[in-house]
Amino acid sequence: MSACRGLARAARRRVPRLTRPYSDQPELGDRPLRTFEDWTQLQLKRAESIYSPTTAPIASSRTLSNSADAVRRPVPNATVSSLLAAGAHFGHSSTRMNPNFIPYAYGVRAQSTIIDLDHTVPLLRRAANLVRAVAFAGGQILFIGTRPDLRQIVKSAAGRIGKQGYYISDRWIPGTLTNTAELFTPQVAAETLSTPDLVILLNPLTNLTCIRECALAHVPTIGIIDSDADPRIVMYPIPANDESPQTAEIVAGILSIAGREGLALRMEEEVMKEESEQNDADDEFWDQVEVERAAEAVEDLEKEKWIDAEPDPEQSDEEPFEFEEQPSGQAIRLLKYIH
Prior knowledge:
By secondary structure, the chain is of the alpha/beta class. It has a domain at 74-268: Rossmann fold. Helices cover 52% and strands 10% of the residues. The chain contains 11 helices and 8 strands. Strands 5-4-6-7-8 form a 5-stranded parallel beta sheet, with helices on both faces. Strands 1-3-2 form a 3-stranded antiparallel beta sheet, with no helix packed on it. α9 links the parallel β6 (198-201) and β7. The N and C termini lie far apart (190 Å). GO terms for molecular function: structural constituent of ribosome. One of its GO terms (cellular component) is mitochondrial small ribosomal subunit. Keywords: Ribonucleoprotein, Ribosomal protein. It comes from Mycena metata. Pfam families: Ribosomal_S2.
């Protein structure tokens, strides 16, 4: 037993002094920890200071609630920090990276592709400008997210746009755009406008049939493209992590807010147009009233001038009109008979 203790002491002495942990207890000084009891006391003290029962649960609950609120609250603008917090930069394994995705890849770490968010932010802003323009023109916007964790996201995003927003959360029915007469009745296909003006896909690889139909129907598409997908499958790709619901919520929130802004601009323009038409109608009405008043004033003035110019027979100095011809014989006999 004494021989074992001696070997342990010799092994501890062979450890360099700089590699030994130092104690932060004032009573032990600034000397290294020499015994296992000192090491145990140090670990217990650190655990008590870090995981205090009065502060640790409160701090963790506040952190979780703040992060959850930040994710649920849509942001109007895309920033690298918000995308990093949502994990949008995490891609798939480097062995699964699509060759066409290389321009959007930042590098490889731990055999996983890291997406370059410096490319994601401008592409997301471009997509937001497109959604704003489509909503401003009165187009119909369709959100598609067929995973269970994306159902509430697409529903909320479509609700922000109002009557111009639609969503599909279960699955895409093949033939919705290319075979409407067989899928629905010919009367419904003829009377109902079933082709959207813009389609936004939060999980495009699961909805490749929808992408093909949109291409055949000439409908522009926006999609979240991960490192294992070809960015050319959609018209406006957004390179990001397509398996993160936080990333999908940020992207859908930014695009839906842009659509709401376009709708607000459209309503404002309609109000201004109605006001302009009303002002033009009022101006035309009052111009017509002024013309009629001017015509009446001219007519009254002409009547006054005509009355002033008419002669008065009682005050006239002119001699009465006399016939120059001599009266006839019949007229002379009549005058004699009267006298």
